[in-house]
Amino acid sequence: LKPFWLRVGSERWRPQAIIAHRGAAMRRAIGLLALLLLDGGPLAAQAQTLKLSSTLTIEKTDSKTNTHEQVAGLLEHAKEKKLDSNVVRFLENTVQQLQKVLDAAKVVEQNKAVEVPKDFTPQKYRVKPMPKLQAKKITVKKIAAQELRKRLQSGKDLNFDEPLLVTNATALFNSDDWNNVRRHWSASRIMGDEQLEKDLRIEYWPPDKARARLVGNMLQMEEPELVAFSRYVVVCFHGTPAKPKLPGQNTEHCEQTVDAQSMARNASELKELAIFPEIKNALPLMGEFRSRILKAAAEELPSIVGKNVKKWESTRGRLSYQYFVFGPSGSGDKLHAENGLPFYDILIHGSRRWLLLTEEEMQRVAEKAREALEFDKTSAYMFFEEKLPELREEFGLKKFIEANQQAGDLVIVPSGWYRVSLSLADSISYYETILSEQSTLKAITDNNVWRPQMRQYQLAYCYDPQDLHLLPGIEKGSDFFNWLKDALGKVKNDELLPGILSVLLQCGSTLSLSKSMPQLNVKGLTSCTPAAWKQCRAQLKARLKEKGSSATLAWLPEEAPKSLEDLPGGAAERSSEEL
Fold it and tell me: How many other CB atoms are there within 10 angstroms of residue 417's CB atom?
């Protein structure tokens, strides 16, 4: 019923005021209504029984709980003042109706908590799918989830010769874990997480913003826009009825690859995604080594790496191996390899098309087509729409593998394969890189420390110019020795100190695998030997002393670490974690 007014003499009273206000004015209004409901007003003369109705409007932004508490307070006040029974019944009825509203809202929330969303994004933000762009011919080999599990349980690993597709990999999850994962990693849940909304920042590159610009003769890298997840969803997914967000050129730049640990409040949120407990992956241990060192060194880091500590930690200090990849329909990164590491990718929501090829095939075609097409720099959407037909017809691309991945499917990609994937619907997946082979560990370590043929000379920071012949493969007095000596003499402390610490983090994380993964034989496997560790630590200490720094390096073991327990407080931390 519509709201109405009661007129008594020259005054008008609205029944809503009885609920909305408290204090002296509220008590006068209740008293007046009581008189009217009895027989003291002019309306009572016209009828023995008078029925009144009132409307209470609760806006979307109003708190139903607060409204219920306030009306309940009015009811208690009416009872204390022994107001007329009609007034008490009126307020009791209002309280009962509000309680029903609260109960209904509770049921809705409970249903939401157990409801498994069918899509990554809610309808309001959903971008139109592109099923017509699916691969017409599926050439990837398939393996059943149970067969894969038996292989791992028998002691084998995920190192295959070519990519594999595990359809319906939900069988690898325990009990209701898969439904929990789909509920937890949906756009609605992530947007509603106040802590993530506050802390998580997405590196968003607008399509019209260059990632680098020429300043004089130097190429200067630009910085991306840092936006909250909800803002990213609005920019990349949200359209209007008059102008809906169309997939393709409007969304091709929107795919994001984010460190999974930055999207989780604690490790338990990622526990359900640990579907391969049989795999001995060195990366978690190496990442933990770095995290503990950086945590212990927090007070002294600024004196070593300078003011931009957080940026250095995120780009050079920490080791990421777990990721979430998400984006709207039509988004996808360019053709690339995964840093030489094998990985697996489980699609939580959406649909994707994959193309994979070996490094040899990539290089063969690139020699012919790179300048003509720049196919390795284009988005996934443009690759599949324009570049792939040309590569096949004009440049002889033949040896590649294609797959369509649906929600619940797992893609396994071996080391050395290039890949490009296109979201055919709003999608999110979890992928994890794996390091379990000795040859891969050696390559990854040396590539980050000492590989002169690839222009990696960072280990040289740990030596004085006259001692460079102590480095692997360096002969004193040779042309390379003299060139490196001159180059090292020009390096300033601002570059030298962070460089030495980077070497220590890489070498320490590799050497600390000695006890937990003895089969890797890390002691003499790479350029990161125990002697190199002691040399780098001594050099860092000497350079800091020259700088006048008061850093003690007490957080850095003097002897090369063999496990996480060799770090300061390592055993104590481990005991507390186990408890």
Answer: 20
Tokens of 163: 């990519």
Asked if residue 478 lies in contact with residue 487, where contact means CB atoms within 8 angstroms, the answer is no
Instruction: List Cα–Cα distances, 314 to 145, 164, 290, 291, 321, in angstroms.
Output: 35, 32, 11, 11, 13
Q: In angstroms, what is the C-alpha Rg of the chain?
A: 33
Look up residue 92 and give its two tokens: 């009791």
Report DSSP state, residue 384. Answer: I
CA 170 – CA 175 distance, rounded (Å):
10
Distance set, CA 559 to CA 440, 525, 530, 531 (Å): 25, 18, 7, 9
Q: What are phi and psi of 315, to 5 degrees?
A: -95, -30
Helical spans, DSSP H, in 306-406: 309-312, 359-373, 380-382, 388-394
Cβ atoms of 355 and 140 closer than 8 Å: no
Distances (CA, A) of 316 to 297, 403, 506: 15, 34, 10
Please tell me whether residue 567 adopts helix, strand or coil conformation: coil
Burial class (CB within 10 angstroms; exposed 0-12, middle 13-18, buried 19+) of 541:
middle
231: alpha, beta or left? (left if phi > 0; alpha if psi -120 to 50): alpha
Is the Cβ–Cβ distance between 356 and 335 less than 8 Å?
A: no
Amino acid type, 23: G
Give CA–CA dist 579/577, Å, rounded.
Answer: 5
Q: How many CB atoms lie within 10 A of CB 213?
A: 11
Instruction: Find the helix or strand (DSSP H, E) in which 268 lies.
Output: helix 268-271
The three-state secondary structure class of 287 is helix
- Of 250, 254, 251, 259, the closest CA to residue 204 belongs to 254
* Residue 134 DSSP symbol: S
Please give the chain's pLDDT, 579 residues, in tens: 344 444 444 445 454 544 444 455 455 555 555 555 554 455 444 557 777 778 888 887 888 899 999 999 999 999 998 998 888 988 999 999 999 999 888 887 777 767 889 999 999 999 999 999 999 999 999 999 999 999 999 888 877 889 999 998 999 998 889 999 999 999 999 999 999 999 999 999 888 877 777 777 777 778 889 999 999 999 999 877 777 789 999 999 999 999 999 999 888 899 999 999 998 999 999 999 999 999 999 999 998 988 888 888 888 888 899 999 999 999 999 988 877 789 999 999 999 999 999 989 988 888 888 766 677 678 999 999 999 999 898 888 889 999 999 999 999 999 889 999 999 999 999 999 999 999 999 999 999 999 999 899 999 999 999 999 999 999 999 999 999 999 999 999 889 999 999 999 999 999 999 999 999 999 999 999 999 999 999 999 999 999 999 999 999 999 999 999 999 765 444 433 443
Helix (H) or strand (E) holding 433: strand 427-433
